[in-house]
Design goal:
Length: 315
């Protein structure tokens, strides 16, 4: 086996553990259990998991907001503990909550943030950043006059003032309208195309499917999957077939044993089955043998939501 060069990872996590201390008679909570994770430099990586899985704990550890119990966290070869300042400079975290000083303008807010990161005045590109975020017109407006969507874009700007090589976004599109969502998608894609490693957590599985080349699924503090998105999708062999038929009076339809009926109304049938158990031909033969006249037919492959359900249901 070829030994991989460690420097190629945008982010590397070894044996990471977080135990929240017990209080008020409760048991301690193990939020992360000996987690190992490698994110390739320059990749677009999705981190998914149900509520309470440990996603925010992980992100907050990376952001320096939560102290890990044990383990190693690195960006390329920059160790979070050994090289605190350089690590901080290499990462930008977009938290989920927006929390702004109402008396600052977007320009001031970004400028102060750049100062906190030690970016020299001459190196600051605040105007350019505001322009790319579509906030140019609001540069000097008070924060309280900004819409929710504008604030969220500013939050992204705050994570980017020091041009970090790794950007982590904690549900950036939660509750935003379609227009802004598309804008954020394009922005993230653009950022990634310029070489930034992006780690995205999201509740919208179709978003992860569309953007992320690789996806890790966290459940109860453990990784239950970490695969290329396409491989993850191939893991479920569920298929759905939609049929439009002609026989108005056909009432009861018998299906092969392992296929299940999802819907049957207005002369439209929707049947789900496992590709490994039943062949499509077999299913259609069965339907035709009952006198079903098929007018139209389409199939759907499993999506990430199916994979997610399958993987997290028994854990
Ligand atoms: P996620 O972001 O995936 O929903 P979290 O990281 O927020 O998951 O939570 C993981 C587990 O750790 C949950 O059981 C949660 O209750 C617990 N937890 C999170 N933050 C704290 C905290 N500050 N103190 C104690 N327990 C916490
Ligand atoms: Mg969370």
């Amino acid at each position: 086996m070829i030994k991989t060069d460690l420097t190629e990872f945008g982010l590397e996590i070894q044996n990471l553990q977080k135990v929240y201390k017990a209080h008020e008679g409760n048991e301690p909570i193990v939020a992360l259990k000996n987690l190992d994770l490698q994110v390739k430099k320059g990749s677009f990586f999705g981190l998914l998991g149900p509520n309470g899985a440990g996603k925010s704990t992980l992100i907050n550890i990376l952001a320096g907001l939560v102290i890990k119990t044990s383990g190693i966290v690195k960006i390329r070869n920059i160790d979070q503990d050994a090289n605190v300042r350089e690590f901080k400079r290499s990462i930008g975290v977009v938290p989920q909550e927006t929390n702004f000083d109402p008396f600052l303008t977007p320009f001031e807010s970004l400028d102060i943030q750049a100062g906190l990161y030690g970016v020299r005045k001459s190196d600051r590109k605040i105007r350019q950043l505001l322009h790319r975020l579509g906030l140019e017109a609001k540069s000097n407006a008070y924060m309280r006059s900004l819409s929710g969507g504008m604030r969220r874009r500013l939050l992204i700007g705050k994570a980017l003032v020091h041009t970090p090589e790794v950007v982590i976004l904690d549900e950036p599109t939660a509750g935003v309208d379609i227009e802004l969502r598309e804008m954020l998608w394009n922005y993230m894609k653009d950022l990634n195309a310029r070489g930034t490693t992006i780690i995205l957590t999201t509740h919208y599985l179709e978003e992860a499917e569309a953007l992320c080349e690789k996806i890790a699924i966290l459940n109860k503090g453990e990784l239950i999957a970490c695969n290329d998105t396409s491989d993850l999708l191939a893991r479920v062999n569920l298929k759905v077939i939609n049929i439009k038929y002609n026989n108005l009076h056909l009432k009861k339809i018998k299906l092969p044993e392992k296929a299940s009926l999802k819907e049957n109304k207005n002369n439209k049938l929707s049947i789900s089955y496992n590709r490994n158990e039943i062949k499509t031909d077999q299913l259609l033969d069965c339907l035709r043998s009952q006198g079903l006249e098929i007018i139209d037919l389409s199939t759907e492959e499993a999506d990430l939501a199916d994979v997610f359900k399958l993987l997290t249901k028994n854990n």
